[in-house]
Every structure is written in C-alpha cells, then in structure tokens.
Write a structure and sequence with these properties.
heterodimer; A: mainly alpha; 81% helix; B: mainly alpha; 2 domains; extended
C-alpha cells in the first residue's frame, strides 16, 4: 500500500534537483542580504554579494548539494549579466556632454587603471608564491564576469577560479572605494565612479549607483571600457608578464 | 493592460536584440571584444541617433542596474568548488586581490582627477 503523501525526504530529493529551488533560494538570500545592507544605511562594508554567497554556500554545504546542481537554477540570474551590460548604455547616453569635455582624463585613467589592475594582481600573487594557473586566473580580475572568464580561458587560467576572483574583487572594490577616494581627496563623482567601475566592474557600478547617479553612469562607462581594453590587451600582456616572472 | 506588458517586454527585447547583434558581430568577425560590450556600444550609438529611445528604455534599465550585484551571486558561489586551491594559495589570492584592487582604485582616481578639465565644477 502506498501512503497518500510523499515523505518529506522524497519531496526534498525532488526539489533539491530542480532549478526552481536554487533560483528561489538565490533571490531570497539576496533579498535578506540587501535588507541588511539597507538597514546599515548602505554601509560599504555590509556587502550584499558577500553575505548572499556565504548564506548559499552554507545551505549547499549543509545539504551536501553540489555547485553544478545549484548553477542549473542560478544560471537564469547569471544570464542577465549580458542584457545588464547592454543596459549600461542608457545612463551613459545621459552623460555624453561630459564625456566630450573630459575624454582625455578618462582615456588616460582607463589606460593607467587597466595596466595597474592586471600587472599588480599578477606580480603580488607571484611574490606570494601562487602557481602559474592561478596567476593567469587572477590577471583579468577587474573585468566583468562573462568577459573575464573568456580572457582567462585564452591565457591559460581556470575560468571558474577567475569568476570567483572577479566577484571577490568586486566585493573588495565596493567596500573600500570610499575610503581610498577620501584618503586621496578625490571628490568628483565622475572620477570616483570611473575608478570604482574600472577596478570593481559591475559590483563597483552597483555601489556607485547607490551613492550617486552621475558616479553610476561613469562607473558603467569604465566597466564597459575596461572589459573592452582588457580583452584586447590581456591576451598579449598577461602571458609575457607570467613568462617573465616564472 | 497591454501597454503595461509592452512597457516591460519591449525594453527587454530591445536589450536582448542589441546583445544578440553584439554576439553575432563578435563571432562573425572573430573580434576579441565580448558580445555584450559591443551591444552596449551599438545601443549607445542608437541612443545618440534617436534620443526618444532613452525614455522608453530608462525604467527597465534602471531596474536591471539597481540590482546588478544580484547577478554576481551565482558565479561567486563557485568559491565552494575551489576549496582545495584556496587552502593552498588562499593567502596569495586574497592579498593580491585586495592590494591590486586598492592600487587600481587609487591610480585611476588620481589620473582622472589630475587631468579633469579645469573650468568644470569638480565637487558638485
């Protein structure tokens, strides 16, 4: 005789293999983390991405679920990175007058920032004894996730380690940007936004939009240009730098 | 009712269409530039030619960009796959990421700040 209701364990086994559960938990974890962030009055150190990741890794570890199963559900959120990148054109279009006036400052900042972000990550990790595959994985760390993973693959890195490095970089940049800019007495929203978008990609952009619309627009511009320039420069620069060091 | 649906779907379809065009160009011409970035450049050009498009796209793009952070969570959870490597090289990875990010923030901000046109109100 079969019982009229499925046992709780069977329901769990069924749901834990479905994309629905992990997609729902991803959104709930983020809502909770964002509520904390809001309650802290958007303190940069209460990072919603870091909190969400910690919660989800905790749930996955406690239920012995693997990342591949999780990602089957979470990929629907991951996918939106593409259209979100395209959407950055909207705030940018509202800043075209400023772009025309300040193109020299922005171009120079872009060139300096892209090289510093790549070279310093590789050199510091090398000084601390990281392996060659790790060095290549860290090189594109300031570039938005989908682009960084593509670059990493091209230069002999591990795309999944790059994805993690990119997210950690975003957490660090979003948390520390304000303190770095204040210490250097850089007060213009354009310069602050551009720097945080360059160094901390989409998470820097998200942080900048919370602080100021103009900073957000310049952060979005920097994120797009950094992806573009790093995609052009890294496949040439990173292998030569790593070969020189190792 | 239909107008409300269009207000959501039309902007989303527009963003996806530009991304699609970007991906097609990147693949077709074997460009090293990622498709979504080309899509962003194409949309920027389209907005310059047709400013009316800006009002149509603003609500959807603002909604998407306001919670851009959420979109990084799935990739970040991948940290669990690298437990082994993080145990071996975690210190090097974390120190390199933190220092390098601070250096990139500082170098970029100082360069942009130093070269910003003088006649502009900088503090606002």
């Amino acid at each position: 005789m079969t019982p009229p209701l499925a046992p709780v364990k069977d329901v769990w086994v069924y749901l834990s293999a479905s994309p629905l559960l992990w997609l729902t938990l991803t959104l709930l974890a983020y809502l909770f983390a964002f509520a904390l962030y809001r309650r802290s009055r958007f303190n940069p150190l209460v990072n919603p991405v870091a909190i969400s990741i910690a919660l989800l890794v905790g749930v996955l570890a406690a239920t012995r679920s693997d990342y591949a199963t999780y990602f089957e559900g979470a990929q629907f959120v991951h996918f939106l990175l593409g259209p979100a990148t395209v959407a950055l054109a909207v705030p940018l279009a509202e800043q075209t007058a400023k772009l025309r006036r300040a193109w020299l400052a922005l171009t120079a900042g872009l060139a300096v920032g892209v090289v510093v972000a790549l070279v310093s990550a590789v050199v510091i990790a090398w000084l601390l004894g990281a392996s060659t595959a790790t060095l290549a994985s860290l090189a594109p760390k300031s570039v938005t996730t989908p682009v960084a993973m593509g670059i990493s693959e091209k230069i002999g890195g591990l795309p999944s380690l790059t994805a993690v490095s990119v997210v950690l970089t975003g957490i660090v940049g979003a948390a520390l940007g304000r303190f770095v800019f204040d210490a250097l007495r850089v007060r213009s929203w354009a310069a602050r936004g551009f720097a945080i978008g360059l160094a901390a990609h989409g998470q820097g952009v998200a942080r900048a939009f919370i602080v100021n619309q103009e900073a957000g627009a310049f952060a979005g511009l920097a994120m797009g240009l950094t992806a573009l320039v790093t995609a052009l420069v890294a496949p040439w620069l990173a292998p030569r730098l790593i070969a020189l060091l190792t | 009712m239909l107008a409300r649906v269009d207000a959501v779907i039309a902007p989303l379809a527009t963003l996806l269409a530009f991304q699609l065009a970007g991906e097609a160009l990147a693949y077709g011409f074997k460009l090293p530039i990622p498709g979504p970035v080309i899509g962003m450049a194409l949309l920027l050009a389209a907005l310059a030619l047709r400013p009316a498009l800006l009002d149509a796209l603003r609500p959807a793009s603002t909604a998407l960009l306001q919670h851009l952070s959420l979109l990084f969570v799935p990739a970040g959870v991948g940290v669990m796959v690298h437990g082994r490597r993080l145990a071996d090289e975690g210190v090097a990875i974390v120190v390199a990421l933190v220092l390098s990010t601070v250096l990139a923030l500082a170098a970029t901000a100082l360069t942009v700040h130093a070269l910003w046109p003088r006649n502009e109100d900088e503090t606002q």
